Amino acid sequence: MATDQHDSHAAVTWVVMGVSGCGKSQIGARLAARLGVPFIEGDAFHSAANVDKMAAGTPLTDDDRRDWLLALRDQIAAHAASGVVLGCSSLKRAYRDVLRSGGDDVRFAHLAGSRELLYERMHNRPGHYMPVSLLDSQLATLEPLQADEAGVTLDIRDTPEQLVEQVLAAGAA
Fold first, then answer.
1. Distance between the two ends of the chain, CA-based, in angstroms?
2. Is 173 helix (H, G, I), strand (E, B) or coil?
3. What pLDDT digit, counting tens, does each position of 62-73 carry?
4. pTM of the entire structure?
5. Where are the domains of the chain?
6. What is the dihedral of CA 145, 148, 150, 155, to 10 degrees?
7. Domain 2-172, what fold?
């Protein structure tokens, strides 16, 4: 069945988006496995300066994010012919526009949840550089998907399996 999924979605790029703690890495990796395409962890492309800034509790600016987003756009372009899943916060429409410029069929799966649930997940996540103190700034920056953006908004209270199935169903629609 995974082969059928891969064949029917071969040239699609899914960006699993949302604020820190929503489950981008877990859902993105599972989705990529189901589609038979690579998963790219967007956080791995942050500069050391950006990681240090976030670890110190300072939100990134648009200027801080520019080279990071361009590198992720280039990753999308490199995989455009075969498809890829990217985990990336994609908090603003402008950021998503940069990512969309990397391929012909870039879709977004927004993992959304309450501040309380996100806080709990971040608080209980060991060893991540993103401090809980940045959650509110991320939520303030977040621009939900707009009607003209290809994608789906999902509730992180659902199980990982349910979330992946919902993305796959949205991709087939």
1. 18
2. coil
3. 999 999 999 999
4. 0.87
5. 2-172
6. 30
7. Rossmann fold (3.40.50)
C-alpha span between 72 and 87 (Å, rounded): 10
- The pLDDT tens digits of the residues spanning 88-122 come to 999 999 999 999 999 999 999 999 999 888 888 87
Question: Most distant CA pair in the chain: distance in Å?
Answer: 45
Q: Which residue has the tokens 């064949």?
A: 7
| DSSP-derived 3-state class of residue 153 | strand
Contacts 24+ apart (CB under 8 A), 147-151: 149/93, 149/96, 149/108, 150/105, 150/106, 150/107, 150/108, 151/107, 151/108, 151/109, 151/110
**DSSP-assigned beta bridge partners for residue 109:** 16, 152
In the DSSP assignment, the letter for residue 45 is: G
